[in-house]
Amino acid sequence: MYTRKEIWKISYPILISLIVQNLINITDTAYLGRVGEIELGASALAGVFYMAIYMIGFGFSIGSQILIGRRNGEQRYESIGAIVIQGSMFLVVLAFALFGISHFYAPYLMRRIISSEVVFSATMQYLDYRIYGLFFSFISVMFRAFYVGITRTRILTVNALVMAVANIIFNYMLIFGKWGCPQMGIAGAALGSVLSEALSLLFFIIYTVYKTDTGKYAFTRIRHFDIRIIARILNISIWTMIQSFLPIFTWFFFFIAMEHLGERPLAISNIVRSVSTLFFMPVNAFAVTASSLVSNAIGAGKYDEVVPLSRRIINLCYMVIIPMMAFVYLVPEVVLRIYTDSLSLIQDSIPALYVMLGYYIIAVSGCIIFNTMSGTGNTRSALLVELMTAIVYVLAIYILIIRLRPAIALCWIVEYIYWASLLLFSFIYLKKADWRSKKI
After folding, report:
1. Which terminus of the chain has fewer CB atoms gathered within 10 Å of its CB, N or C?
2. Cα(181)–Cα(184) distance, rounded to whole angstroms?
3. Phi-psi category of 320—alpha, beta or left, where left has phi over 0 and alpha has psi -120 to 50?
4. CA torsion angle for 395, 397, 398, 400 (degrees, to 10)?
5. For residues 370 and 240, what is the distance between their CA atoms, to the nearest angstrom?
6. What is the helix (H) or strand (E) element at residue 246, kind and residue range?
7. To the nearest 10°, the Cα dihedral for 106, 54, 252, 350?
8. First vs last Cα of the chain: how many Å apart?
9. Residues contacting residue 436 through CB under 8 Å, at least 6 positions apart
10. Cα 300 from Cα 303, distance rounded (Å)
């Protein structure tokens, strides 16, 4: 059984890496909050649209990570390199396909669903540059899957730090036109993020070549594209790809609903979303740890440890989340000043911020139990759970936001519905399904 110290030893590098990585989101929002509310709102729409596409590749890496974790638990190390290299090849092809689809069809889609002409224009300025990040981020997620799968997560912290520092510098230069660069505004935020992702990938490659035992994992044996390995990965990953895409796509639907309420509600939602990521980072870090450790435990034949392990990880996550919630509840203005200097925007954002914070009481258990379920390798059932949750969530958005058009703060109640549904469906799976017999 993994002790709390061992769980934390694996979780905290992931957490630190997520914190540093999400400095990119915080930096973009903070910089653009000082450019204008239109840019602030548009970056939310374009950012979530890009994230929905990115999550397709990320979902593929999650399935790969589960497979890597299982092989690591079985001590079949020579199979791991093939998973990473073949998965990277597949993701390069996928990046080209998704780039082409987005380049040709995103303007048409955005034009149909965004009501404000100025918001549409700013959204496309951001997306035209941001979409190039797919070519770098898709390969980076395979390196992340590799290091999480073999439970060697400290390097993620260093990589994320490199990426975040680069993003802060590039965005400052390109958004505001500093140090001889053109003043690009919202387009500069997108280009800065792409450049930081490219630097992050370069770091991963150099570190892996010079600091990782590539012979142990048989990286050097890979010579050509192997469709059999890709098929084996896709047998798990196809479900995690759709499963990862769904929640971000439904979140995009949430922001479209907010945009139809007005430019100020959209700006408030982007600020609250950015604050929400501060809380989702530890939740996601512990959830990723749960998926990896469950996969390793099952690979070692320790089925009875799965549920107690999940419970222990949930308790550790609450120990991190609750003090954070208390701090933001007590001094919301301090946090919101990171994103904007507008006093009226700060005051209008506080009620929505309070509502958002509350749903993390449910989200901690929901996210970790769901990732425990994914770690068992039954990604098809995980997709079904995510699909049912997404349907409930979209219906809630339609009824509570689009039809009723309530105050901004009340719009965030739909998040309670999402996490409660995910928790319920995942809990039922772990109690009732025969996940112990799943072979991958």
Report:
1. N
2. 9
3. alpha
4. 110
5. 12
6. helix 227-259
7. -130
8. 22
9. 298, 303, 376
10. 8
Cα distances (Å, whole numbers) of residue 224 to 80, 86, 96, 183: 16, 8, 19, 44
The model's confidence at residue 22, banded by pLDDT at 50, 70 and 90, is low
- For residues 138 and 130, what is the distance between their CA atoms, to the nearest angstrom? 13
Type of residue at 370 = F
Could you tell me the sign of the dihedral formed by the alpha carbons of 284, 49, 381, 240, in that order? Answer: negative
Helices (H) and strands (E) in the chain, counts: 16, 0
Q: How far apart are CA 110 and CA 70, in angstroms?
A: 41
Chain mean position to CA 213: 28
The single-letter code of the amino acid at 169 is I
Burial of 404: CB neighbours in 10 Å, binned 0-12, 13-18, 19+: exposed
What the block records as the tokens of 20 is: 């540093």
| Distance, C-alpha 63 to centroid of its chain | 15
CB within 8 Å of 294: residues ≥ 6 apart: 306, 309, 310, 372, 375, 376
Token representation of residue 255:
């922001």
Entry pTM: 0.74
Residue given tokens 């979209």 in the structure block: 394
The pair of structure tokens assigned to 30 is 């903070």
Residue identified by tokens 């001889």 is 180
Cβ contacts of 57 within 8 Å, gap of 6 or more:
91, 94, 95, 98, 134, 137, 138, 141, 241
pLDDT, one tens digit per residue, over 293-350 is 887 777 777 777 778 888 888 988 999 899 999 999 999 998 898 888 788 889 999 9
Give the CA count within 13 Å in the CB-facing half-sphere of 243. 25
- As a whole number of angstroms, the distance between CA 30 and CA 23 comes to 10
